[in-house]
Amino acid sequence: MKQVFTTLLLTIALLSIGQIKNSDFENLVKLGEIYSKNVNATGKDFKMSVEKLRTPGLNQIIDALIAIGEGDVKLLTKEFLSKPSEQELKYWYVLREIHYNNQSTEPKINEQIAIETIENDIDIRWLLDNYYYRIRGGIGKIFNDKDLSIYNIDLDDYGLETDTEKAILFFAVSNALTQRFRVLQMMKNNNRLLEFASKLPTFNGKPYYEYTSFNFEDFEWIGYEKIELYKHRHLGTLFMTLDAHLGALSEMNKQEEMRNLYFNSILFIPDYFKYSGSMENALNELYINSKN
C-alpha cells in the first residue's frame, strides 16, 4: 500500500512540473544514479552509459562529466567555467542530492528526490558552489601532469554577477589545484610544492594569492549534512594553503618571493585574520611587527 501511495504521489508531482521535460527528468534520474556509483566519472563504461542519456537539456552536463572523467583541459575554458543557467544548476543539484540519498541509511525513491530538488527554492549561491565543486575534481586531475601557467582565469569573463559568485569560482579552482600543498607541507617536500606553485594559472592576470576580493557578506552553506559559514570554511582553507606556500618559500630561502606572497595576499589584510583559525594571533603579531 505504501509503495502504491508513493507512486501516486510521484505521478501527481510529475504532472505538476512544468519547467522540465519528461525526457530530461527520466534521464536526469538515471544520470544521477550512474554518477552516484562513480562520482569521479571515470572509465569507458561510465562514458558509454551517460552518452545514452543525452537530451538537449542534459547535453552540457554530460559533456562536463565526460571532461571531468578524462581530466580534459577544456574544463578551464569559458565553455565550462561560465555560470550555467539556473535550470542546469538545478539539474547538477539533483545529481548531488541523488548521490547523498544513495548514501543514506534510509534512502527515498530517487525520482522523489529529483522532484523535491527541482521544486525547492535553493539559494543560487549553493547551486553555483555545487556546480564548481562537481567539476573541480577534473580540474585537479589536469594539474597532475600539466603546466597550467599559460592559463589566465579572468573572473569577469564568466557571467558571474557579484564578488560572492566570483569568489565561489576562485575557491573551487584554486583549492582544486593547491590542496596538495598541505600534503606536501606535511611531507616536507618543499621543492615539489614550489614546482606545483610555479605551474598554477593566474587569476585576473595575477598569482592566486593576490586575489583578495572577499569583502562580501558571509552566508550559511551546506556541505554534506552540515551547515557552515561559507567564508569561514573557504577562507580558512585558503589561509592554510598560503601558510604551506609561505613555509616552503622560507625553507628554500626565497626571500623576495616570500615578501611578494605575504604583502600581496590576505596574510597582510587584518580584516580577514578572524577566518584563519589558530593562525590568527600569529598573523596579528606578524602584521604589527611588519609595520614597525
Search tags:
mainly alpha; 292 residues; two-stranded parallel sheet; globular
How do the helices and strands line up, and which of them pair or pack?
Layout: H1 2-16, H2 22-37, H3 44-51, H4 59-70, H5 78-81, H6 86-103, H7 110-119, H8 124-143, E1 152-153, H9 163-186, H10 190-197, E2 202-203, E3 220-222, E4 227-229, H11 230-251, H12 255-263, H13 280-291
Parallel strand pairs: 1-2
Antiparallel strand pairs: 3-4
Helix pairs in contact: 2-6, 3-4, 4-8, 6-7, 6-8, 8-9, 9-10, 9-11, 10-11, 11-12
Explain the overall architecture:
With 292 residues, the protein is mainly α. The chain folds into two domains: 1-121, no CATH class; 147-292, no CATH class. It has 13 helices and four strands. It has helices at residues 2-16, 22-37, 44-51, 59-70, 78-81, 86-103, 110-119, 124-143, 163-186, 190-197, 230-251, 255-263, 280-291, and strands at 152-153, 202-203, 220-222, 227-229. A hairpin with a 4-residue loop joins strand 3 and strand 4 (227-229). The longest helix has 24 residues, at 163-186. It is globular.
